[in-house]
Amino acid sequence: MDPIVTVAELIALRPHVPVLIDARRSREAFLTSHLAGARFVGLDRELAGPVASASEGGRHPLPSPEAFAKTLSRLGVTPKSDVVVYDDQSGAISAARVWWMLRAYGHDRVRVLDGGWAAITDAASRGELALESGEAPDAQSQHPVRAWRGETVDRTAVDRARVDPSSLVIDVRAADRFRGENETMDPVAGHIPGAINAPYATTNLDDAGRFLDATTLRDRYVALLRGRTIDRTIVHCGSGVTACHTLLALDRAGLHGAKLYVGSWSEWCRRPELPRETRVD
Question: Which of 10, 120, 217, 237 is catalytic?
């Protein structure tokens, strides 16, 4: 199943309506207007666990399986649900994170809406989709607790992979952050030595902010792999959120098995025993 769904495909699903999840960063924006039937999920409170110290797990560690089961129950997701999720950043904040978390939780029937909120409002202006405002009532479903599948790696595994010629570490942050020229999120600028930079926005999306087709994405990532296998690939970003955008793109490309470093740069840069590099090309 293509992990990306277009507005036209979503409309064609009627009268069947999947579980709709609004993953925009702003709850206020959701209350003002959202896709009819959607429920809001918050990145910091529901898609991440408590942060005792970003040096242990980064700024957005995964929530416990029990907490995520409660979130899914509130959203109306059951093990049999079809799910469509959108945000207003071409999937990067935080629709791709929802997609990845559901997949890592053992739920495969989930897709990200291509074009997100902009595509929704465009279709709504033509009367093809309905919008509503205000609170959305919690669902009364019950999702069983499941363990996270083994789709993540820790900093020790990243430290090994970065010096292993058969492995690849991909940093999907913007190039200026990778080079250490601009860092507003974390206390130290730079990147993990040995990692390559493939910014998610310019690698995965076209000029209109839509996902590239599967063939183009595959060609791009096969070129980056340079003969390495996808199962020896680790993807990270600042805090394990936008990295999911690249994992989504890899899935669309038919390249399955890359791992997420959840702690990402936000954890790595706070560990003085780990090497850091700044390079200006």
Answer: 237
DSSP code string of the chain = --SEE-HHHHHHTTTS--EEEE--S-HHHHHH-EETT-EE--HHHHSS---S-TTTT-SSPPPPHHHHHHHHHHHT--TT--EEEE-SSTTTTTHHHHHHHHHHTT---EEEETTHHHHHHHHHHTTSS-EE-S--PPP---PPP-PPPS-EE-HHHHHHHTT-TT-EEEE-S-HHHHTTS--SSSSS-SB-TT-EE--HHHHHB-TTSPBPPHHHHHHHHHHHHTT--GGGEEEE-SSSSTHHHHHHHHHHTT----EEESSHHHHHTT-TTS--B----
- 3-26 residue pLDDT tens: 999 999 999 998 888 999 999 999
Query: Average pLDDT in the 108-121 region?
Result: 97
Domains of the chain are 4-132 (3.40.250.10), 152-268 (3.40.250.10)
- The verdict on whether 237 is a catalytic residue reads yes
For the stretch 220-251, pLDDT in tens is 999 999 999 999 999 999 999 999 999 999 99
